[in-house]
Amino acid sequence: MEMSLREVAQLIGAVLEGDPGVPVRGASRIEDAAPGTVTFLGNPRYEPYLAQCQASAVIVPLDYQAAAPLHAALLRVQDPYQAFARLLEHISEAKAQHPAGMEAPVHLGADVQLGQDLYIGAFSYIGDGAVIGDRVRIYPQSYIGAGAVIGDDTVLYPQTTVYAGSRIGKRCMIHSGARIGSDGFGFLPQADGSYRKVPQTGIAVLEDDVEIGANTCIDRAVAGETRIGAGVKLDNLVQIAHNVGIGAHTVIAAQTGIAGSTRLGRNCRIGGQAGIVGHLEIADQTQIDAQSGVNASIRTPGLAFRGSPAQPFRKQLRSEVLFRKLEEMQQRLHQLEQAIKQGE
Q1: Strands of 73-77's sheet, edge to edge?
Q2: Is the dihedral of CA 147, 151, 152, 157 positive or negative?
Q3: Calpha distance 328→205 (Å, rounded)
Q4: For 160-185, what is each residue's pLDDT tens digit?
Q5: pLDDT for 288-344, tens place per residue?
Q6: What helix, strand, coil percent values describe the chain, rounded to 5?
Q7: Is 249 a catalytic residue?
Q8: CA dihedral defined by 301, 307, 313, 318, rounded to 10 degrees?
Q9: Prediction pTM value
Q10: Are the C-beta atoms of 8 and 38 separated by less than 8 Å?
Q11: Annotated catalytic residue: which of 90, 242, 249, 279?
């Protein structure tokens, strides 16, 4: 891919300050930007890198004022990060390969419904009665169980598993090693100390425009549905237990676990390695910091929480400050006790 700075400016809606004919071959980080690439300044703490930046152009805010002369051209925009993302989308699409057709061997069960313009990679398995929409791409060694439904324009990367009956919407992206619809963790303790498995008879449902990271697991419901709302983005190594519901456009970072029957609202943001216990209600637009442990419902929308057990963000920060002073406070208390004893 090669384009001129003039074309880049038109693509991202930027005001260009520099030679419009300079060629661009890609994008780069500001720390190690090379000639022929475009980078961006989205955070003031990265500004020191600009002095040595070798990029052909830098995307900057509209009101940016350089502290010293720069070698790179400037592309002024309202939101540098959004503009850089748009450029990356263009570069990604230009480099993308779109395989087509059905490789061999592929197993197709009875009564499978196949859409138009498909790609099905070698050693994939599609069970009886599965429905595959138009323009779906199924990469090699993937498994789609009986009766599963895959919506139009969805991509399943290699070694994805979609259990029987699961339903995946349109324009979803399922990364390698993800497991959709596996059994939930349901076991009843018995009198002899053993555990009896509770059959998981429900399904897992992903609505449209969902992205699931590599090696993430979404359990099927005990009964009914585990449902992932439209536009939800799950990072790698996330565990979603049976009968969980996640509201539209919620994002969850890696190594987070959500226990059974918990309901998350819309537009929530969950940091990495967070844990949420079962049977809770989490309000819309809740933010949960990384490594937090949530053990109670959050019913007021738009609040931020951190810590374990999770508390409102500022309250937890104050508690943390006090905790760090405990040793000093204990020493002062001991000194006061000694002074009182000596006074007696």
Answers
A1: 15-17, 73-77, 57-61, 37-40, 26-27
A2: negative
A3: 53
A4: 999 999 999 999 999 999 999 999 99
A5: 999 999 999 999 999 999 988 888 888 887 888 887 888 888 888 888 888 888 876
A6: 20, 30, 50
A7: no
A8: 150
A9: 0.88
A10: yes
A11: 242
